[in-house]
Design a protein that fits this description.
There is one protein chain. With 474 residues, this protein is of the alpha/beta class. The protein has 3 domains: 97 residues, no CATH class; 193 residues, Rossmann fold (3-Layer(aba) Sandwich), CATH 3.40.50.620; 63 residues, no CATH class. The protein is built from 21 helices and 10 strands. A 5-stranded parallel beta sheet has the order 8-7-6-9-10, covered by helices on one side. A hairpin with a 2-residue loop joins strand 4 and strand 5. The longest helix has 25 residues. It is globular and about 60 Å long. About 4% of the residues have low confidence.
Length: 474
């Protein structure tokens, strides 16, 4: 006899398997993986972990610190797995099995299908998240293709930033109302905002990266019904391609690629754990990354393409969209079955880091927009952010530039007495092997280690909720 919560979770998972947003959203259910299949379904991973009397997973926390998300179906809770976008339950022989569905088929009329989705959202009053980059320009072009403009477009950033200037110029040229919104860190509400946000992602988001988002976007509540986002448009390009792909493949330098392209320099995260624990965690991360990179047979580029789709998109980007759904309705045409099917069907031979297939699609839809963009770039200029630059920065041990709003969020979260109390609790949990000195170093220098502040806050929220659900530390 299963519980009502388990039945609800199973039903939600089964409904997800036939839904139109199969690949674009998470079902929001969790389970315990067993040798015979999956069991004990739940919609709350903390409650499931408490019922199983498991604690936090040190490897999951380390993966968040080192690469920015958990690999595979791992959650912050030991033994608790996450059902991912594109997965479904198959019940057979009195057991539940989780399997991955095939990618959607390529539609015969990709432009018209995408244009219809965008125009429907714009006509219903949705705002356009507009950075002026390729993805948001494509969305605007899909609307202009049918003569439909968004009610309003907006860009988050400083007034003199190249992104804001670029977006404002394009919006003005094509008759689209445009707003600039600064990133706002509201110290009075930041803890409550990020705790709710973390829970909605299934505890799979860096707290600092998104702590400022609810307060900032609340300024749009009176001027839009939803937001159209171009997130994950780069799936049609070679996100992880480097100029050295052939060398990596021929010489078997995959571990070096992981160190340079995925993981932060060792000194930037491993000191959070005791030395012996950190060494073991690092080895496990390399092993899991290697397994993920070999999830399919194929060339190096085919495998990194699959890694991007299966790891970064499904396990990092989509949970953030899920969490935003409580703040506003999210419309993601570039995560729709139509676009996803089109993008994933592209062979590596036509994929490029500058996403030529997506640029060709934009030119087909509304070429005037691409022509004007070139003129704007020549006037405004864009900062170099090449793969070589990223690799050299990592090799030199330099931290990457923090996301918008992250520094102020890190300082505000590090100063919150309740969060510091929760963080102290996870330090005392011996199974994690955290270094008290390392944690104090991060808390004492939030502007120096903003991402690690986010890791500690997310883990501490998960720990507190675990205990609120009845977990007792043995």
């Amino acid at each position: 006899m299963i519980s009502k919560r388990e039945e609800e979770a199973q039903n939600r998972a089964r409904m997800h398997s036939v839904g139109p947003q199969l690949w674009g959203r998470s079902p929001g259910v969790y389970y315990i993986e067993t040798e015979s299949g999956a069991g004990e379904w739940e919609t709350d991973p903390a409650r499931l972990a408490a019922e199983r009397k498991t604690g936090l997973d040190a490897l999951a926390i380390a993966e968040e610190a080192a690469i920015g998300w958990q690999l595979g179906s791992r959650t912050l809770f030991k033994s608790v797995k996450r059902m991912l976008p594109g997965e479904r339950i198959v019940s057979c022989d009195n057991r539940d099995v989780v399997e991955t569905c095939a990618y959607p088929e390529v539609p015969s009329c990709i432009v018209e299908r995408l244009s219809a989705q965008v125009c429907e959202a714009f006509e219903a009053g949705a705002a356009l998240e507009f950075s002026g980059g390729l993805d948001s320009r494509l969305l605007l072009a899909l609307g202009l293709h049918r003569g439909v403009r968004p009610k309003i477009s907006f860009t988050i950033g400083e007034e003199d930033s190249s992104e804001v200037v670029n977006a404002a110029a394009i919006a003005k040229e094509f008759g689209v109302p445009h707003l600039r919104i600064p990133a706002i860190v509201d110290r009075e509400r930041i803890r409550d905002d990020i705790v709710r946000f973390i829970r909605r992602t299934g505890y799979s988001v860096n707290a600092v990266t998104h702590a400022w988002l609810p307060a900032t976007l609340s300024r749009l509540d009176e001027v839009r019904t939803a937001q159209v986002s171009g997130l994950v448009g780069e799936i049609c390009g070679g996100f992880y391609y480097t100029p050295y792909d052939s060398v990596i493949e021929k010489l078997g330098l995959e571990r070096q690629w992981v160190a340079m392209r995925l993981m932060a320099p060792r000194s930037r995260w491993s000191f959070l754990w005791r030395a012996d624990i950190a060494q073991d965690l690092e080895a496990q991360i390399y092993a899991e990354t290697d397994a993920a990179l070999h999830s399919i047979n194929g060339t190096w580029r085919e495998r990194t393409d699959a890694f991007y789709r299966n790891e970064r998109v499904r396990r990092w980007a989509i949970p953030v969209l899920d969490a935003c759904e409580e703040l506003y309705r999210v419309v993601t045409p570039l995560l729709s079955p139509e676009y996803f099917g089109w993008a994933t069907a592209l062979p590596p031979s036509v994929r490029t880091r500058d996403r030529q297939p997506e640029r060709d699609l934009l030119r087909r839809v509304f070429p005037e927009l691409e022509t004007f963009q070139v003129q704007v770039q020549e006037t405004v200029g864009t900062a170099s952010n090449s793969t070589v630059t990223k690799i050299l920065r990592r090799l030199a041990g330099r931290k990457r530039k923090s996301d918008l709003g992250a520094l102020d969020s890190a300082v505000a979260l590090a100063e919150d007495s309740k969060l510091r109390e929760w963080i102290s609790s996870i330090c005392a949990y011996s199974d994690l092997g955290l270094s008290t000195e390392g944690v104090e170093r991060v808390l004492g220098n939030p502007a120096e280690y903003p991402e690690l502040i986010g890791v500690l806050v997310t883990a501490s929220v998960a720990w507190n909720d675990l205990h609120q659900s009845g977990f007792e530390d043995a």
